[in-house]
Design brief:
The complex is a heterodimer of chains A (181) and B (107). Chain A is mainly alpha-helical. Chain A is 78% helix and 0% strand. Chain B has a single domain, classed as Helix Hairpins (Orthogonal Bundle), CATH 1.10.287. Classes of the chains: A mainly alpha (181), B mainly alpha (107).
Amino acid sequence: MKTIIFNVFVLMAIIPSLWVALSSNIVHAAFSLLFTLFGIAGLFVLLGADFVGVVQVIIYIGGIMVLIIFGVMMTQGARLSPLSVNLPGRLLAAGLTGIILAVLMVAATHFLWPVGSAPPPPTPASQAIGNLLLGKYLIPFEVASLLLLAALVGAVLIVRHSVRSDLSPSVFIIRRKQRGE
Amino acid sequence: MTYSLSSFLMVSSLLFCLGLFTVLTRRNAIRVLMGIELVLNAGALNFVAFSRFLEAPEGAPLISGQVFALFVIAIAAAEAAAVIAIVLSLYSMLKTVDIEQYQQLHG
């Protein structure tokens, strides 16, 4: 039973990610990425990481995917250019990726990982995760919060500057008209 | 595939390589961002799989891998926000998302 569910989630993660890598339509790629992220969230839950799975659904699918689809929408009027690099570049990338994949596959299957009879993690893992986050990993936790704050402020600053420089003439004209000048 | 550490590692290495291929070959900046998300997800899956299957030091279940997966997700969120901001800003300046057209830093 577990094997069947595992295989379903694996197919759900792999097949759309093939589409992400190979599709020529960026909207299809964005929605395929959505299914891939759902599949990986299912794999997290299957591994006993229920909290990480739910966080994956909330943050990736509720936040990052919305951002990506928003970015795809906002840049639809972009000048048409070749979708991918030229053929020699693609062949080189495929060869390089193939070599890395082969090495990783051999490492995954042939290396003797010290797999022990570890007890399954506690099913609501949130208590243990909270204890670790505010205990052993307190400094990385605070650094991550600082990083999120910096990314938030930086993103707002970058976009605000460009939008203001983009719109300012028309905005000033509208304001002048409102003042009757 | 059976439910074991090797299968999880194979799945995540396949995801990693597909993401890497996307990053290397695509010219649309948003598409490159999608490839990076795939790579980060493969890393998070590896963390969680190792924390589930590897032998714990004193018999207690390992949760550290799940904590690191949470850090990966947080960093992915920050990175996506920053990348989308930069791409939209460049798009409003240059009217393109082709990363080969972004050559303003050439001396």
